[in-house]
Amino acid sequence: MRNLTKAMAVAAMLAFPAFTFAQTTAPATKKAPAAKAEKAPAAASKKVATKSASGTVKSISDSQLVITTSGKAPKDETFVVNASTAKKPATIEVGSHVSVRYTQEGTTMTATAINASAPKATKATKAPKK
Q1: Per the confidence metrics, is the pTM higher than 0.90?
Q2: How far apart are CA 77 and CA 116, in angstroms?
Q3: pLDDT tens across 53-75, in order?
Q4: All domains of the chain in start order, with CATH
Q5: Sign of the C-alpha dihedral, residues 113, 117, 122, 127?
Q6: What Å distances lie between residue 125 and 11, 35, 93, CA to CA?
Q7: What are phi and psi of 106, to 5 degrees?
């Protein structure tokens, strides 16, 4: 009888922790698909990084600026110009050296600010020495 009581006590001690662990674990719940929808606007509201480039104006219009960058491998870069683009001075001429601040979304580079200096004088435009 004593052995039977001991066996029951040991069985109860082993069963009790297993029973309590089974009740304390929370059932697995799936996250709602709406959680992804909430993250999408957060990604869209991130600030777009501003970049800069400089070079010589190849062509300019009300909606587009093309510059030729200087360096080891000169290349043409095209920027979208809109009503919110700050231009200093207000009129920019072909041949002027410019510094362009822009944002890039995909392959589109949109100019946010354009600072220009006077175009370099060429030999034909220089005044002769007296």
Answers
A1: no
A2: 16
A3: 999 999 999 999 999 998 888 89
A4: 50-116 (2.40.50.320)
A5: positive
A6: 105, 65, 15
A7: 70, -125
Residue 47 amino acid letter:
K
* Alpha carbon separation from 13 to 7, 24, 25 (Å, rounded): 10, 17, 20
In Å, what is the CA distance from 55 to each residue of 3, 66, 95, 124?
A: 95, 9, 9, 22
Q: What is the CA radius of gyration of the chain?
A: 35
* CB 72 within 8 Å of CB 36: no
Each residue of 11-50: pLDDT tens digit?
777 765 655 555 555 555 655 555 555 555 545 556 778 9
Residue with tokens 């080891």: 72
